[in-house]
Design goal:
Elements (H helix, E strand, L loop, with lengths): L1 H13 L18 H16 L7 H15 L8 H11 L17 E4 L2 E4 L1
Antiparallel strand pairs: 1-2
Helix pairs in contact: 1-2, 3-4
Length: 117
């Protein structure tokens, strides 16, 4: 039951809030939207062990990390493309999360780190 509650809370934060409307479908991949988002919510809870008090910038960082690390959205999208999608979809005033590269910078993964060159 807790797993389903976490799913609902994360869905409100990511899918239902309007903050990541264009980015949320990238989570699905080839799986069903429910199964994919459940996988994302399990991953997110394993990373941060909370469902409240998650800053929007941190949530964008985590979404970027999931899309480039877990979903492996490198084909056809590169980490830079994913970063631009996440940053573009974040509401004004939220700013680009510090670990998501700004326009004109290149991102690549080194282990669990996102490096900007």
């Amino acid at each position: 039951m807790q797993r389903l509650r976490r799913f609902a809370k994360y869905w409100d934060l990511v899918g239902n809030s309007g903050n990541f409307v264009g980015t949320t479908p990238l989570i699905w991949g080839a799986e069903s939207p429910f199964a994919s988002f459940l996988r994302f919510s399990d991953w997110l809870y394993a990373r941060i062990a909370r469902t409240d008090s998650i800053a929007l910038a941190r949530l964008a960082e985590l979404l970027f990390e999931f899309l480039t690390g877990e979903v492996k959205l490198e084909q056809p999208a590169s980490p830079n493309d994913v970063a631009q999608l996440v940053a573009r979809r974040a509401p004004r005033g939220a700013g680009i999360p510090p670990r998501i590269p700004a326009r004109g910078k290149r991102a690549h993964r080194a282990g669990s780190q996102i490096l900007v060159a």
